[in-house]
Design brief:
The protein is mostly helical. 73% of the residues lie in helices and 0% in strands.
């Protein structure tokens, strides 16, 4: 008898959630809108990709096109003609991996401490972290701290240490940890686990969506880093240049050469791939991130929507 009642309830639930004709029309409209919007967002990237493989003369005469009107690899040859590009790639990839890892260690540790209800100083710690979002010492104070006190000028650590933590990411991670039932940690403490064990073996495995989301934020910050190279690394230590900063340097040189008389550089503005080079640098710079994102997309979407689901 109980089994029949259970089956009846399941049937009623399925019948209740069954979509009507108007629901199907609305869902179809939503899918159509998202599809069109995605295509519109994809068009600029395709224009950049196609233009990067277009000869400079054809690009100047015909403009930007998704399909190259005259295929050419001159822009990419100019990008990789510099022997510093592989070194810059290595620096950028290394700082992104190492920086993201230690940033997440610090962020998860601070966020978990503030999410534990029996931690008496969690309010003071949260206020201190939030205060740094409102006020800071400014550029001059940061420069003096980095160069005179920490002595990080012309040092690869200057690309890592100043970005180890972000107050906003810590508070986001704290809110994510706070949504995890406290009974999980309490049951683990009864079994003799300490806070570090609880964090590593219980909290982190069920927090992968939040960790992937915040980790992607940190990875993008380290990958796009160029300003610290401008401030703290001299040209005599160019081996520490990041990819973004080195590409900027090369682009300035290309633009300078394109604006000089033909006799001065042996080329003219139509043979030097100035515009195509700009497009090629975009592809080179964002390529690894585009390849990484599909592997994190599932966790990234869950991390963005978890607040609404648990709210």
């Amino acid at each position: 008898m109980a089994k029949k009642e259970k089956q009846k309830k399941q049937y009623d639930a399925k019948k209740h959630i069954q979509m009507t004709g108007s629901d199907r029309v609305m869902n179809g409209g939503f899918y159509l809108f998202i599809t069109v919007f995605s295509i519109i967002c994809l068009i600029p990237f395709l224009l950049v990709l196609g233009s990067s493989f277009t000869a400079e003369r054809a690009l100047t005469q015909n403009g930007y096109n998704i399909w190259p009107s005259e295929f050419s690899l001159d822009a990419y040859k100019l990008v990789f003609v510099s022997g510093d590009i592989p070194q810059a790639y290595l620096i950028t990839v290394g700082t992104t991996i190492v920086g993201t890892f230690f940033s997440m260690v610090f962020t998860c540790g601070a966020a978990y401490a503030m999410s534990v209800k029996n931690f008496k100083s969690r309010g003071v710690l949260a206020l201190f972290i939030y205060f740094t979002m409102l006020f800071n010492g400014g550029l001059v104070a940061n420069y003096l701290l980095t160069t005179k006190f920490l002595h990080l000028q012309n040092n690869i650590l200057v690309l890592l240490l100043p970005s180890f933590c972000n107050a906003w990411n810590i508070l986001l991670m704290r809110n994510f940890f706070s949504g995890i039932p406290a009974s999980l940690a309490e049951s683990a403490k009864i079994d003799g686990a300490n806070d570090i064990t609880i964090l590593i073996k219980i909290i982190i495995p069920i927090s992968l969506p939040g960790i992937a989301t915040i980790g992607l934020f940190y990875a993008l910050t380290y990958w796009n880093e160029w300003y610290k190279c401008l401030l703290y690394i001299d040209s005599s230590h160019s081996q520490y240049y990041t990819l973004q900063y080195l590409i900027q340097q090369i682009l300035r040189q290309v633009n300078y050469a394109a604006n000089q008389p033909a006799e001065a550089v042996g080329l003219n503005s139509l043979t030097l791939p100035t515009y195509a080079y700009r497009m090629a640098t975009i592809i080179v710079a964002i390529g690894p991130i585009i390849l990484l994102y599909p592997f994190l997309q599932k966790y990234f979407v869950q991390g963005l929507t978890v607040g609404s689901v648990k709210g």
